[in-house]
Amino acid sequence: RREPRAVRFGRVEGENRGADGAALFDPPRERTDDLFWLRDDKREDEEVLAHLRQENAYFASEAEGALKPYHDTLYAETKALLKETDVDAPVPRGDWEYYARTVEGKSYRIRCRRPRGGEGSEGEEVLLDENVLAAASKHCEVGAVAISPSQNLMAYSVDRTGYETYTVHFRDLRTGEEHADVLEGEVDSGIVWGPDDTCVFYTTMDDQHRPFKLWRHTLGTPQADDELLVEESDELFWMGFFKSRSGRFLFCQVEAKETGEMRVIDLHARTPEERAPRLLAPREEGVLVEAEHLGGDTLAILTTADDAINFKLQTAPVPPVGGAEDRSAWSDVASLPYAGERNLISLEPFENALLVEGRRAGYTRVWRMDVEDGQVVSPPKEVEFEAEACECGVGSNLEFATGTVRLHYSSLVTPAQDIDLSLATGEMAVVKEKEVPGYDPSQYEVSFETCVARDGTEVPISLVHRKGARGADGKTPAPMLLYGYGSYGICIDPSFDYKVVPLLDRGMVFAIAHIRGGGELGRPWYKEQGKFLTKLNTFTDFVDCAQHLVDNKWTRSEVLAINGRSAGGLLMGSVINMAPSLFRCCVAGVPFVDVMTTMCDASIPLTIGEWDEWGNPNAPQYHDYMLSYSPMENIQEDASDYPTVFITAGLNDPRVAYWEPAKWAVRLRDAGARVLAKFDLDSGHFSASDRYKYISERAWDYAVVLRELGLPPEK
Question: Is 455 exposed, middle or buried (0-12, 13-18, 19+ CB in 10 A)?
């Protein structure tokens, strides 16, 4: 079915087009979209659903044929690498320690606790069996689980569609009975208890699926009587909130891509005036702020103020009733002065220590400083892990007054570890390493390459492969899967993924291109070199990295597959238009590929906030530039030399609507490309919630890769 529909860019009467009328096209520009009919905001149109089922039927014909032996073998191998019955490292809190466990054959986690210091299942209490919760749903995602201050009650949020809208339930842990209170509507996933068991805080979302209101709910009262504490009317700003580890404050953060502000609520205050949200400082364009309670009446702050693009560490007093008028009371922490080569990301305060997560030289780092009476009293010491090239950070910690801090660590060859750091001695002990049955890390090796991009910028590449995969001389090209993302400042760190081991065991190389638009080399890598009018760097970097790997005999184009999800799917769509013959196979998950049509229309959830990421195509400043890389509009007239493209998507995805990949599949086929598409009609952006179904979905991805690269199903 083709039904031409005019898509307008610029000023449209009665619509939010994102800028003052003088800055928009007026009259608007027009483009024709004859597949616009595939958009159904309610996901109920039978003709649309029939189209998606037809795509699935076409994929099933392949799945039951040539792909089946690949999928079944990969699924079996991947499942064998999963320790199906397993227990997380317990995290202590008061008289209890909390953990989750899994059971062979069961798809979801079981959340439990036991008396502190216990062993095994002695004294175990099952708090939430997600398998029971999921029994009546095809999709079941638990967003948050919050234990009350007395540890007698539990609040938990559940999404049953994949659309990331949640319902909050309450359970009495002494009896196991569900509380009558239920929070419904456009509720986000987060839930935080107040100073006692009488109230909780939560946020609700607007029509854009944007969290914008913070509420206080008192148990035993109707949701309609909940108290609205903070409302953010600017549609560029999203709201988040959290409770300080000390338990004294609730922080409410309102943030756009480059501007933010925070309010603090004193949970121990006695009067309504003292309990009211207090602004840390007025909002300043281009200034981001993170805060946590350091101790006493002092807050620790990370901010980009004063041109500190990679964030600097400051302290500030708790703002007065009514809020602070400016940042004049904030002061730099002298022991950790601002350094452009060091990117500070998050604050993790404890009674006697402040840990700061960040990045240096392209990799994650953790710095530790001593604290006395809410003041930093020592220079930072970098925590040393087994390998510098890793993914590390502060793990789950439920206590403020503690002498031990839980850390986490992983590398491309080392499965995830939970590590306890002694604040008194600095000693580190591995509490648990994720067991991967049959996996021997000594059989694999990690390598690093530097690609000099076309503009001279050095772009790092991380690689992992089985020893001997590149022949006796170590220089024989090997089949490769190259992964990329490159947006929002999100980093793709060199961490362990058991699902790629079956590929490595077949002689493949798995590589990550740390391209601009990500945050691996600090915020300038994103803010100055990989968004807005420098976004093309993201795509050309990936093409240049792929060409570098071919030129340096890591692989050949004939056996090079590429993979990316979401904004990484945009990357996939763009690079196969730019250099189709460079790749043999492309796997694009929930791909954001209809850039122009989506970004001009504020009625599509999340669009308005994304104007701060890509630009607004309704404005001449951005329109032509965005058009130059939008995958949908740049498919070559003859795409017969394109790599085979495998597209996956979820019907209930609120982040990348299903109609984008659906339209893209049709457009690619129209131009002669070979395309397979698979639509999960029960899930959203993050694929299946059932762990076995999730493994199966990834096995389909890699089945396509192996077949297209000419590798056999068996090792």
Answer: exposed
